[in-house]
Amino acid sequence: MSTIIIIGDAASIRKVQMPKSAKSLSGLRKAFETDVITAAQRLLGMELVRGNLRARIVEAEAYRQDDPGSHAFRGKTPRNSIMFGKPGQAYVYFTYGNHWMLNVVAHEEGNAAAVLVRGAEPLSGLETMRKRRPKARHDYDLLSGPGKLAAAFGITGKDYGVDLFDPHSSLHLEAGRAPSKVLCGIRIGLTPGKGDDLPWRFLDGGALKFVSRPYPTLEL
Question: pLDDT tens across 161-206, in order?
């Protein structure tokens, strides 16, 4: 089983035991149907696939409806409506005028939640990723941030609502290698007082060079 190292307010999260390997999406699907914080941890190690592009997810953040940092905090809108839908669907949105962001919808329908895919380790299709991310100086920086990941995978608004648990979808998740150590810290880029103190950012402790900055403080 994986070691869960808690950084921040331990009372605000639920620790989960990670399987040594993920042989199917069944456990992940169940987690996404019930608890977004558990789901964010379970997502680590899963592989994101599009054609010949493949990457192992190493960083994720959880958001839910009662969370002031969530798009769903003030209710349902045309932009966030998919967050209130079926778990496993892709919530893709445009931010800062030039970045697409990929999220995986969680919880039962009507109870909005989602996991932001923040970073991944590239496994295949690197030539395409390098062309789409010409500013990346190293391969470990190709997917080290949600905007970078979306650019490298060609993710746009056209992927809004895609079923990521369906192996026939053009963009989908597949089983991968679970991390041996999971780190936890506060989420990135939130307005002070808007959920920025919640330690709902989860990282693969053995793949830190592939995650976005800043790194969490590694204090037990």
Answer: 999 999 999 999 999 999 989 999 999 888 788 888 899 999 999 9
Q: Tokens at residue 95, please?
A: 């931010």
Per the DSSP assignment, residues forming a β-bridge with 114 are 63, 105
Condensed to tens digits (0 to 9), the pLDDT of residues 42-57 reads 999 999 999 999 999 9
Contacts of 66 (CB under 8 A, 6+ apart): 73
Residue 174 CB contacts under 8 Å (≥ 6 apart), including other chains: 25, 46, 47, 49, 167
The helices-and-strands tally (H runs, E runs) of the chain is 4, 9
Q: What angle do CA 136, 142, 146 make, to 5 degrees?
A: 115
Count other C-beta atoms under 10 Å from residue 163's C-beta.
17
The distance of Cα 111 from the centroid of its chain, to the nearest Å, equals 18
Identity of the residue numbered 200: W
Both tokens of 107, joined, read 């919880």
- Count the neighbouring beta carbons within 10 Å of the beta carbon of residue 135: 7
Which distant-in-sequence residues (6+ apart) come within 8 Å of 192 by Cβ? none
Residue 48 dihedral angles phi and psi, to the nearest 5°: -95, 130
34 backbone dihedrals φ, ψ, rounded to 5°: -115, -45
